[in-house]
Amino acid sequence: MIQVKGVWFHYQPEEAPRKDWALQDINLTIMPGEYVSVIGPNGSGKSTLSRLLNGLLLPVEGEVRVGGRLTANTQDLWYIRQQVGLVFQNPDNQIVAPTVQDDVAFGLENLGVSREEMKERIRDALEAVGLAGMEQREPHHLSGGQKQRLAIAGILAMQPKVIVFDEATSMLDPQGRKDVLGIIRQLNEKGTTVIHITHSANEAFLAKRVIVMAEGRIQLDLPADELYPIALILEKWGLDVPLAVRLHHRLLGHGWHLRERITSLEDLVTDLWRFLSKD
Ligand code: ADP
Ligand code: MG
């Protein structure tokens, strides 16, 4: 679905030595239907990478292909932007129209979709994010989580194959976050390729594959199950490892026979209780 080969990128490439570039020798293949998370500290190049994936930025060196087509080919750019949707961090910055319905319609205006099909796509997209019935509402009256779901609906209406969520939950309250994570999971289950950029290790473990970025490079790229046993390594790159995961690793190290993978305190307590209640 996506192929990144030997990509180097910097915003002012003439002015910086290679070791300071935002992206350094990135190689990455993403297959259709994958659910990949990208985790890394601030400034590690995650957002820059996401913008290269749909041709908003072009590599200074190397190449990015979407469905086999090069982002550097201007004539393929429309196709690529339609294939790879981006959802950003701040829901307020993504709203463009005075009503929910018009907001979803906005991206479609340029795709040359018929009125009938437009209506259908808008309805399906709003349905998918749980905003059906809110067509005439004014977006600025929505909660942060609802706005973010509206932004997702706008992307869905364009029927992309891939959606990149760039810290799309980080400005939301717990309920908004939960709703958006639920939608991400559902979309992936229905076949959308998901790339979920986050600096929450908890969220990263929801994916099947985790890519760890730091200093402009991919440091690790492995199944989430393989990252879990070495999760404490994330601290090396300045990432927060959740308390439940740290405690769990500590207890395993002391020979406590707990489950192999625990990501919430609730599960840890339940499992500790089970362990301690055995005879
Ligand atoms: P992340 O999303 O992981 O926090 P970014 O991709 O935003 O990282 O940033 C990577 C590097 O590129 C940082 O050094 C950052 O300062 C720089 N950078 C990001 N956006 C811009 C921009 N629009 N112009 C110039 N430099 C930028
Ligand atoms: Mg970022």
UniProtKB/TrEMBL annotation:
Its main location: membrane. Keywords: ATP-binding, Cell membrane, Membrane, Nucleotide-binding, Translocase, Transport. Residues 2-240 form the ABC transporter domain. The keyword ATP-binding applies. It holds the Pfam family ABC_tran. This is Energy-coupling factor transport system ATP-binding protein. One of its GO terms (cellular component) is ATP-binding cassette (ABC) transporter complex. SMART domains: AAA (SM00382). The keyword Cell membrane applies. PANTHER family: ENERGY-COUPLING FACTOR TRANSPORTER ATP-BINDING PROTEIN ECFA1 (PTHR43553:SF24), HEAVY METAL TRANSPORTER (PTHR43553). Belongs to the ABC transporter superfamily. It is a peripheral membrane protein. Gene3D superfamilies: P-loop containing nucleotide triphosphate hydrolases. It is found in: Cell membrane. One of its GO terms (molecular function) is ATP hydrolysis activity.
